[in-house]
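Weekly structure sync, notes
Attendees: PL, DS, HV (note-taker this week)

Item 1: Pseudouridine synthase
DS walked through the input record. Source organism listed as Metabacillus malikii. Sequence as pasted into the shared doc:
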Amino acid sequence: MDIVELQVSEEYKSERIDKFLSASNKEWSRTQVQQWIKDGVVKVNGVNVKTNYKCQAGDEIELIIPDPEPLDVIPEPMNLDIYYEDEDVLVVNKPKGMVVHPAPGHLKGTLVNGLMAHCKDLSGINGVLRPGIVHRIDKDTSGLLMVAKNDLAHEGLVDQLVNKTVTRRYKAIVHGNIQHDHGTINAPIGRDKVDRQSMTVTNVSSKEAVTHFRVLERFNEYTFVECQLETGRTHQIRVHMKYIGYPLVGDPKYGPKKTLPLNGQALHAGILGFIHPRTKEYLEFEAPLPEEFEQVLTEIRKNSKA
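Item 1 (cont.): predicted structure, written out as C-alpha cells:
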C-alpha cells in the first residue's frame, strides 16, 4: 500500500474532498476516490469524512492507497478482432456466442479472459470479474464494444453513456413488414415479474428506455432495420421490437418459436462512436455484418423474389 499526504491550499477552500483528490492526480478517477472515502482510507486531520466534505485551507489529508485486489480471471490467449487500441481505450468486435465477462461458475472463454491475456492494464471500477467493461452486448449479439484500460478512461466513457452522447447503431432482422420508414420507441423497461430472467416494457420498477429505428430493406415476411440506442437497458432492442410487434429473427427469449435457423437473435452492433476521454477527439468505427447474418439476408432476398 502507498500513503499519500496532501495539504489543502487557500485556492481549494470549500472544494468537495472527492473533487479535490481526483484533481490532485490524473490517475485517480472521482469514482475511485469516492470508493476510497467510503472504505475509510481517507482521513482529514486524522478523521474520516464523507464524500461531500468541503475542504478547508490548511486541512491535512492522508490517503492510504490499498494494494490492487488480485483478479480472479484467468487470462486466455484469443484471436481478438481489435479495431482500435491506445493507452486508454480499446475497441473490439465481439463474435456471436461469446459472453462478455465472467460470472460465478462461468470463469472461462469470455471476452474479458481474452482481454486479460491481450493487455494487462484494464480499469478496475467494475470489480474483479468485469475489468475494463464499460457496456455490454448479449452473448448472441455480435459487434463493437469499447473497453477502458484505466479508471480515467472508464469514468469518461461512462459519463458519455449517461449523457447519451455515445453513438450505438445496430443492424437487425425482424419478423413482419414494418410500414413506417423510421420511428422511435419510448417505453420503460424493467424485470418481468413472472419470468425474472426476462425484461419487459413496464411502469413497475423500470427505467427509461428509448430506441430509434429506420427501415433499411423490406421483404415479404421480414424487415431489415437499423436501431440506434439512446439508452442502454438490458435486452433493450429485443424487448422494444417485440413490444411494437416485430420481434427479432432467431431470438430464443423474445421471438416466436417458428423462426429462421439461427443460433440466437439476428442483431449486430455495427457502428460505435465516442469522444476519446483524453484527447477529446470523436472516434467512430464500423464492423461489417457477420457471415451468418449475411447468409440469412441473402436467403431472405432470394425467397422474397421467388
